[in-house]
Amino acid sequence: MERRIAFITGASRGIGAAAALSLAERGFDVVLTARTLAPGETHDHGNKAGAPDHRPLPGSLEETAAAVRARGRDALTLRLDLLDPASLAAAVDETEQRWGPIEVLLNNGIVQTAGVMDLVCDLTAENVERIYRGNVLSPLWLVQRVLPGMVARGRGAIVNMVSESGFTDPPAPAGEGGWGFAYSSSKAAFARLVGVLAAEYRESGLRFYNVEPGFIVTEMVRATGLLEQFGPQWGGAPPEVPAAVIAWLVAEDAGREWHGKTVSAQKLCKKLGLVPGWPPPRA
Fold this sequence. Notes:
- By secondary structure, the chain is an alpha/beta fold.
- The chain has one domain (5-272): NAD(P)-binding Rossmann-like Domain (Rossmann fold, 3-Layer(aba) Sandwich).
- The protein is built from ten helices and seven strands.
- Strands 3-2-1-4-5-6-7 form a seven-stranded parallel β-sheet, with helices on both faces.
- The longest helix is centred in the middle third of the chain and has 29 residues, at 125-153.
- The chain is globular.
- It starts with a strand and ends in an 11-residue tail after the last helix.
- The model has no long low-confidence stretch (mean pLDDT 92).
Protein backbone atom coordinates (compact mmCIF):
# COMPACT_ATOMS: atom_id res chain seq x y z
CA MET A 1 0.00 0.00 0.00
CA GLU A 2 1.49 3.35 -1.06
CA ARG A 3 2.45 5.55 1.85
CA ARG A 4 0.63 8.86 2.16
CA ILE A 5 3.07 11.76 2.45
CA ALA A 6 2.36 15.28 3.69
CA PHE A 7 4.99 17.99 3.26
CA ILE A 8 4.71 20.87 5.76
CA THR A 9 6.58 24.16 5.93
CA GLY A 10 6.96 25.90 9.27
CA ALA A 11 6.60 22.62 11.17
CA SER A 12 8.89 23.34 14.12
CA ARG A 13 6.11 24.93 16.19
CA GLY A 14 2.66 26.49 16.07
CA ILE A 15 0.12 25.52 13.45
CA GLY A 16 2.63 23.57 11.38
CA ALA A 17 3.63 21.32 14.27
CA ALA A 18 0.02 20.79 15.34
CA ALA A 19 -1.00 20.01 11.74
CA ALA A 20 1.75 17.39 11.54
CA LEU A 21 0.22 15.57 14.49
CA SER A 22 -3.32 15.81 13.12
CA LEU A 23 -2.21 14.49 9.74
CA ALA A 24 -0.25 11.68 11.42
CA GLU A 25 -3.42 10.68 13.25
CA ARG A 26 -5.13 10.52 9.84
CA GLY A 27 -2.53 8.07 8.52
CA PHE A 28 0.02 10.38 6.89
CA ASP A 29 3.78 10.19 7.19
CA VAL A 30 5.00 13.76 7.42
CA VAL A 31 7.94 15.71 6.04
CA LEU A 32 8.72 18.43 8.55
CA THR A 33 10.54 21.51 7.29
CA ALA A 34 11.59 24.76 8.95
CA ARG A 35 14.70 26.70 9.94
CA THR A 36 14.85 25.26 13.48
CA LEU A 37 16.01 21.66 13.39
CA ALA A 38 17.10 21.15 17.01
CA PRO A 39 15.93 22.66 20.32
CA GLY A 40 17.70 25.84 21.37
CA GLU A 41 18.74 27.00 17.91
CA THR A 42 18.60 30.75 17.35
CA HIS A 43 17.34 32.54 14.25
CA ASP A 44 16.38 36.18 13.83
CA HIS A 45 12.60 36.48 14.12
CA GLY A 46 12.47 40.23 14.63
CA ASN A 47 9.58 41.76 12.71
CA LYS A 48 10.65 45.43 12.63
CA ALA A 49 13.58 47.08 10.89
CA GLY A 50 16.48 47.71 13.23
CA ALA A 51 15.11 45.38 15.91
CA PRO A 52 16.55 41.88 15.42
CA ASP A 53 15.40 39.22 17.87
CA HIS A 54 17.60 36.16 18.28
CA ARG A 55 15.97 34.70 21.37
CA PRO A 56 15.44 30.95 20.99
CA LEU A 57 11.81 29.94 20.68
CA PRO A 58 10.15 26.80 22.03
CA GLY A 59 9.77 24.05 19.46
CA SER A 60 11.91 22.33 16.84
CA LEU A 61 11.57 19.85 14.00
CA GLU A 62 13.16 17.15 16.15
CA GLU A 63 10.51 17.63 18.84
CA THR A 64 7.67 17.62 16.32
CA ALA A 65 9.10 14.45 14.75
CA ALA A 66 9.18 12.70 18.12
CA ALA A 67 5.53 13.54 18.68
CA VAL A 68 4.63 12.25 15.20
CA ARG A 69 6.46 8.97 15.81
CA ALA A 70 4.69 8.59 19.15
CA ARG A 71 1.49 8.52 17.11
CA GLY A 72 2.76 5.59 15.05
CA ARG A 73 3.73 7.45 11.86
CA ASP A 74 7.09 8.28 10.32
CA ALA A 75 8.66 11.74 10.19
CA LEU A 76 11.41 13.17 8.00
CA THR A 77 13.05 16.38 9.26
CA LEU A 78 14.62 18.73 6.70
CA ARG A 79 15.98 22.19 7.29
CA LEU A 80 14.31 24.70 4.96
CA ASP A 81 14.53 28.48 4.71
CA LEU A 82 11.84 30.22 2.68
CA LEU A 83 14.39 32.86 1.67
CA ASP A 84 16.78 30.22 0.29
CA PRO A 85 15.44 28.72 -2.99
CA ALA A 86 18.12 26.03 -2.97
CA SER A 87 16.85 24.69 0.36
CA LEU A 88 13.33 24.36 -1.07
CA ALA A 89 14.53 22.34 -4.04
CA ALA A 90 16.76 20.18 -1.87
CA ALA A 91 13.91 19.39 0.54
CA VAL A 92 11.49 18.30 -2.19
CA ASP A 93 14.16 16.30 -3.99
CA GLU A 94 15.18 14.48 -0.81
CA THR A 95 11.56 13.74 0.05
CA GLU A 96 10.89 12.16 -3.33
CA GLN A 97 14.16 10.23 -3.36
CA ARG A 98 13.74 8.81 0.15
CA TRP A 99 9.97 8.45 0.48
CA GLY A 100 8.21 9.05 -2.82
CA PRO A 101 5.65 11.52 -4.18
CA ILE A 102 4.03 14.18 -2.03
CA GLU A 103 0.25 13.82 -1.62
CA VAL A 104 -0.42 16.84 0.58
CA LEU A 105 1.46 20.14 0.48
CA LEU A 106 0.78 22.45 3.43
CA ASN A 107 2.17 25.92 2.78
CA ASN A 108 2.12 27.04 6.38
CA GLY A 109 5.46 28.75 6.96
CA ILE A 110 5.94 32.51 6.69
CA VAL A 111 9.00 34.71 7.04
CA GLN A 112 9.57 36.54 10.30
CA THR A 113 11.75 39.41 9.17
CA ALA A 114 12.19 43.16 9.27
CA GLY A 115 9.26 44.91 7.61
CA VAL A 116 6.50 42.58 8.76
CA MET A 117 5.28 45.04 11.41
CA ASP A 118 6.80 48.25 10.04
CA LEU A 119 4.78 51.32 9.13
CA VAL A 120 4.53 52.24 5.45
CA CYS A 121 7.01 55.12 5.69
CA ASP A 122 9.56 52.82 7.37
CA LEU A 123 9.48 50.09 4.73
CA THR A 124 12.48 49.46 2.52
CA ALA A 125 12.37 47.82 -0.89
CA GLU A 126 14.74 45.13 0.35
CA ASN A 127 12.50 44.16 3.26
CA VAL A 128 9.33 44.15 1.14
CA GLU A 129 11.06 41.94 -1.42
CA ARG A 130 12.13 39.52 1.34
CA ILE A 131 8.57 39.28 2.62
CA TYR A 132 7.19 38.63 -0.85
CA ARG A 133 9.95 36.11 -1.51
CA GLY A 134 9.11 34.13 1.61
CA ASN A 135 5.32 34.50 1.65
CA VAL A 136 4.45 34.40 -2.06
CA LEU A 137 7.24 33.28 -4.38
CA SER A 138 8.62 30.40 -2.32
CA PRO A 139 5.26 28.72 -1.62
CA LEU A 140 4.33 29.30 -5.26
CA TRP A 141 7.49 27.46 -6.31
CA LEU A 142 6.58 24.54 -4.06
CA VAL A 143 3.13 24.40 -5.65
CA GLN A 144 4.65 24.40 -9.13
CA ARG A 145 7.09 21.67 -8.11
CA VAL A 146 4.55 19.20 -6.73
CA LEU A 147 1.60 19.84 -9.06
CA PRO A 148 2.74 17.79 -12.09
CA GLY A 149 3.14 14.66 -9.98
CA MET A 150 -0.23 15.14 -8.31
CA VAL A 151 -1.91 15.61 -11.68
CA ALA A 152 -0.23 12.50 -13.08
CA ARG A 153 -1.48 10.43 -10.14
CA GLY A 154 -4.91 12.07 -10.08
CA ARG A 155 -4.64 12.54 -6.32
CA GLY A 156 -3.39 15.25 -4.01
CA ALA A 157 -4.23 18.35 -2.02
CA ILE A 158 -2.62 21.74 -1.56
CA VAL A 159 -3.47 23.77 1.53
CA ASN A 160 -2.36 27.39 1.73
CA MET A 161 -2.50 29.18 5.05
CA VAL A 162 -3.84 32.68 4.53
CA SER A 163 -4.54 35.55 6.91
CA GLU A 164 -7.50 37.73 7.77
CA SER A 165 -5.08 40.65 7.48
CA GLY A 166 -5.07 40.03 3.72
CA PHE A 167 -8.81 40.69 3.51
CA THR A 168 -9.44 43.26 6.25
CA ASP A 169 -8.30 46.79 7.08
CA PRO A 170 -6.39 47.02 10.37
CA PRO A 171 -8.14 48.65 13.34
CA ALA A 172 -4.94 50.51 14.29
CA PRO A 173 -1.36 51.01 13.08
CA ALA A 174 1.11 48.15 13.14
CA GLY A 175 2.41 47.72 16.66
CA GLU A 176 -0.75 49.18 18.20
CA GLY A 177 -3.18 46.37 17.42
CA GLY A 178 -2.89 46.46 13.62
CA TRP A 179 -0.66 44.93 10.99
CA GLY A 180 1.85 46.12 8.42
CA PHE A 181 1.23 46.61 4.71
CA ALA A 182 4.06 44.38 3.49
CA TYR A 183 2.87 41.32 5.39
CA SER A 184 -0.85 41.76 4.79
CA SER A 185 -0.43 42.49 1.09
CA SER A 186 1.78 39.43 0.66
CA LYS A 187 -0.92 37.27 2.25
CA ALA A 188 -3.58 38.94 0.07
CA ALA A 189 -1.57 38.06 -3.04
CA PHE A 190 -1.05 34.48 -1.89
CA ALA A 191 -4.76 34.05 -1.14
CA ARG A 192 -5.57 34.43 -4.84
CA LEU A 193 -3.67 31.28 -5.79
CA VAL A 194 -6.15 28.62 -4.70
CA GLY A 195 -9.04 29.96 -6.76
CA VAL A 196 -6.84 30.11 -9.85
CA LEU A 197 -5.62 26.55 -9.26
CA ALA A 198 -9.19 25.31 -8.90
CA ALA A 199 -10.08 26.89 -12.24
CA GLU A 200 -6.98 25.66 -14.08
CA TYR A 201 -7.15 22.09 -12.73
CA ARG A 202 -10.93 21.66 -12.47
CA GLU A 203 -10.87 18.18 -14.05
CA SER A 204 -7.81 16.91 -12.16
CA GLY A 205 -9.43 15.43 -9.07
CA LEU A 206 -7.06 17.44 -6.87
CA ARG A 207 -8.15 19.57 -3.93
CA PHE A 208 -7.05 23.14 -3.25
CA TYR A 209 -7.84 25.06 -0.08
CA ASN A 210 -7.15 28.34 1.65
CA VAL A 211 -7.32 28.01 5.42
CA GLU A 212 -7.76 31.23 7.38
CA PRO A 213 -6.89 30.25 10.96
CA GLY A 214 -8.06 33.34 12.81
CA PHE A 215 -5.95 34.58 15.70
CA ILE A 216 -3.99 31.58 16.98
CA VAL A 217 -1.96 31.65 20.17
CA THR A 218 1.36 30.15 19.12
CA GLU A 219 4.84 30.22 20.63
CA MET A 220 5.79 32.98 18.18
CA VAL A 221 2.74 35.05 19.10
CA ARG A 222 3.63 34.86 22.78
CA ALA A 223 7.34 35.59 22.24
CA THR A 224 6.90 38.62 19.98
CA GLY A 225 4.29 40.45 22.05
CA LEU A 226 1.47 39.86 19.56
CA LEU A 227 -0.69 38.23 22.20
CA GLU A 228 -0.79 41.47 24.18
CA GLN A 229 -1.56 43.45 21.01
CA PHE A 230 -4.25 41.24 19.50
CA GLY A 231 -5.50 39.04 22.34
CA PRO A 232 -7.87 41.56 23.94
CA GLN A 233 -9.74 42.11 20.67
CA TRP A 234 -9.45 38.77 18.88
CA GLY A 235 -9.34 36.29 21.75
CA GLY A 236 -7.48 33.44 20.16
CA ALA A 237 -7.60 29.70 19.68
CA PRO A 238 -4.96 26.97 20.13
CA PRO A 239 -3.02 25.65 17.10
CA GLU A 240 -4.93 22.38 17.33
CA VAL A 241 -8.01 24.14 15.90
CA PRO A 242 -6.68 24.95 12.39
CA ALA A 243 -4.65 21.73 12.50
CA ALA A 244 -7.79 19.63 12.91
CA VAL A 245 -9.50 21.50 10.08
CA ILE A 246 -6.56 20.98 7.72
CA ALA A 247 -6.49 17.24 8.39
CA TRP A 248 -10.27 16.96 7.97
CA LEU A 249 -10.25 18.84 4.65
CA VAL A 250 -7.64 16.62 3.02
CA ALA A 251 -8.74 13.29 4.51
CA GLU A 252 -12.54 13.37 4.41
CA ASP A 253 -14.70 13.17 1.28
CA ALA A 254 -16.94 15.84 2.79
CA GLY A 255 -13.99 18.22 2.58
CA ARG A 256 -14.51 18.49 -1.18
CA GLU A 257 -17.32 20.94 -0.50
CA TRP A 258 -14.64 23.49 0.36
CA HIS A 259 -12.42 22.82 -2.67
CA GLY A 260 -11.24 26.09 -4.23
CA LYS A 261 -12.51 28.14 -1.29
CA THR A 262 -11.26 29.97 1.78
CA VAL A 263 -12.13 28.13 4.98
CA SER A 264 -12.52 29.92 8.31
CA ALA A 265 -10.83 27.36 10.53
CA GLN A 266 -12.38 28.44 13.81
CA LYS A 267 -15.91 28.51 12.40
CA LEU A 268 -15.61 25.11 10.71
CA CYS A 269 -13.91 23.51 13.70
CA LYS A 270 -16.72 24.68 15.95
CA LYS A 271 -19.41 23.56 13.50
CA LEU A 272 -17.96 20.06 13.14
CA GLY A 273 -16.78 19.68 16.74
CA LEU A 274 -13.31 18.64 15.60
CA VAL A 275 -11.49 19.59 18.82
CA PRO A 276 -13.17 18.21 21.95
CA GLY A 277 -13.62 20.90 24.58
CA TRP A 278 -13.12 23.76 22.14
CA PRO A 279 -14.44 26.34 22.25
CA PRO A 280 -14.68 26.21 26.03
CA PRO A 281 -18.10 26.86 27.49
CA ARG A 282 -18.81 30.52 28.20
CA ALA A 283 -18.64 31.59 31.81
